[in-house]
Design a protein that fits this description.
By secondary structure, this protein is of the alpha/beta class. The chain contains ten helices and seven strands. It has a seven-stranded parallel beta sheet with strand order 3-2-1-4-5-6-7, with helices on both faces. α5 packs parallel to α6. 47% of the residues are buried.
Length: 285
């Protein structure tokens, strides 16, 4: 085993994220991007990663956080679960930048009051509508509004899916279904607009260390309570519970780095694919 290989298998090795990330020139300097759901979590990490590569970023979210206002050139307050909010976000970004090179459809998950843990017969239509609008139709609406500019600039779309698309019996009713449809939607766009120079890909993570899981009033705490476990114990047990081969959940910066790569010319012939970033939850090929 050579020296480099030994370094990566040594117990002291830790993944390099955010503050100590390896730099690769992605040739993104001067590009423009709209990132949805950019106020926190993966979306905020994507905004930071793209900004670090020289991209002018517009970040859209229902609530503008101080962190988003600091990193994005333009922070856009918009409810992306509505067609008007999605169209407004794209329109504002186009007006600010004069065109878009990158669209990252990151917004997703949902409000806790629409993420019930009951079964199909326990879930009302409002839960279905909320989760489908936020996790599927938001991407439909933003993509439709952004595509004329993306075609002109031979740009890229990256959608944020989820491994839940492959486990439809887990999670809130409607969420897995929306993410499965989002993967199919990305494939449709890649086939239709690939010949015009637009690349479309999907990144599907497993559990990621965002507030969704880690906040004391987040979805993870709700799941822990439903199972009669302290939240801290639930978080500790997550890798084993989910069968994560790497022994840990992913971090937002790791997912963001993959999204930035797929949005860049460095991934110039990658399109129509779904890349799983789950630490090894899915065991099949």
């Amino acid at each position: 085993m050579n020296t480099e290989a030994r370094a990566f298998t040594h117990p002291s090795f830790r993944p390099i994220v955010q503050k100590e990330r390896l730099h690769m020139d992605l040739h993104l300097e001067g590009k423009t991007a709209l990132v949805t759901g950019a106020s926190r979590g993966i979306g905020l990490a994507v905004a930071r990663a793209l900004t670090a590569e020289g991209v002018r970023v517009a970040g859209a979210a229902r609530t503008i956080t101080p962190e988003l206002a600091e990193v994005a050139q333009t922070a856009i307050a918009a409810d992306l679960s509505t067609p008007e909010g999605a169209a407004s976000a794209v329109g504002t970004a186009l007006a600010e930048f004069g065109g878009l090179d990158i669209l990252v459809n990151n917004v997703g998950a949902g409000d806790l009051d629409h993420m019930g843990l009951g079964g199909f017969l326990d879930s009302d239509d409002s839960q279905w509508h909320h989760l489908l609008n936020l996790n599927l139709f938001s991407a439909v609406w933003t993509s439709k509004a952004a595509l004329p500019s993306l075609i002109e600039r031979r740009g890229a779309i990256v959608n944020l899916g989820s491994v839940n698309a492959r486990f439809p019996s887990t999670g809130p009713v409607g969420y897995s279904e929306a993410k499965a449809a989002l993967v199919a939607f990305g494939k449709r766009l890649s086939e239709e607009f690939g010949p015009q120079g637009v690349r479309v890909n999907t990144v599907s993570p497993g559990p990621v260390g965002t507030g969704l899981w880690r906040d004391p009033d987040g979805f993870g705490a709700q799941v822990a309570a439903a199972n009669g476990a302290p939240h801290a114990d639930f978080l500790t047990a997550m890798p084993a519970t989910f069968g994560i081969t790497s022994g840990r959940i992913s971090e937002p910066e790791e997912v963001a780095a993959l999204i930035a790569f797929l949005a860049s010319p460095a991934a110039g012939n990658i399109t129509g694919t779904e890349i799983i970033a789950d630490g090894g939850i899915i065991k099949t090929t």
